[in-house]
Amino acid sequence: MTAPGVRATREVRDVGEAALTWLSAHRDGFTLGDDALAEHGNVNTTWKPLGELAQVCVCVRRHTDRADPLHVLASDLLSFAWQQTRRGALFVELQRLEPFATYPLEVYAAFAAAGLRHAGYERATATVGRTRGWQVTEQEPNRRLSVLNSERRSGIPEHGDMSTALGRTWLAGLPEPWTFELAAGYTLTHVIFHLTDWGLTPQAVPPPVADYLRHWLAPWLDTCLEDEQWDLSCELLAVASSLPGPPERALLREAWARLSVAQDDSGAVPEVGGRGSRTTAPAFIDCYHSTLMTAFAAVLTLNRLREAADDDTGAAAVDGGQGVPG
User: Global pTM?
Assistant: First the structure.
């Protein structure tokens, strides 16, 4: 008979693997077209999806063994994404066209974190980064965190302090929990992602913020799941696995059981709404991000559950070695 914890872990693994398989099968949707360098091109439909794909693949690779099919699939997708940038050459073009835009660096940073770098782009960006114009650019606090983390990942001197930027965010103010809504939800998730380098360093979350999230994350997640806000639910699940300390396994188990129902047979997860409200498969633009976030949240959840299981095993071994002397 399979233990509940094993069943829950297997369910998370199955959902995450199906999501990543869908992303691989639909990689053409992430292809950069001629509009990627157009003067009035839409970054949200060109560079943003590609950067998000790269970031999720980096996270999957970080938390899986080389022989794991998830690792192999993520590596293949990351290579595809890097080739779309012409192995970094397109970032140089973006730098020339929009020298003070931050989004190229934010996308590039995902590749740099995986060791995929372009020396010419980094030199050009470092030069711009030393200007007053770059350092005083007005940004939303959570976006400032993103730029600072991107500078760090790319080896460019950080132009500000993470803790100062954090202090100006909605989350750092520990707001009344009833002020949580969609915009605040997406802001807080990205604050945690940038603070922890996408779940890599949970200890970077300050104790007051971590305690606040442990207290309120469960009701917020429950509300989003009930409203079938699958995209934000996945981001909140990723946050739950990016906090210091052991994960709340009951919360994760219930949330993933509910999320699995929303996943299409193809592996896609819609941003909002359930299977009963659809008669056709969701369009790429309506599900690519939520499917990416499903894979991202799944690999973080599996990693934390694995760590918790190892801790339990270690504790049991210590207890077992402290028997009553004969």
Answer: 0.92
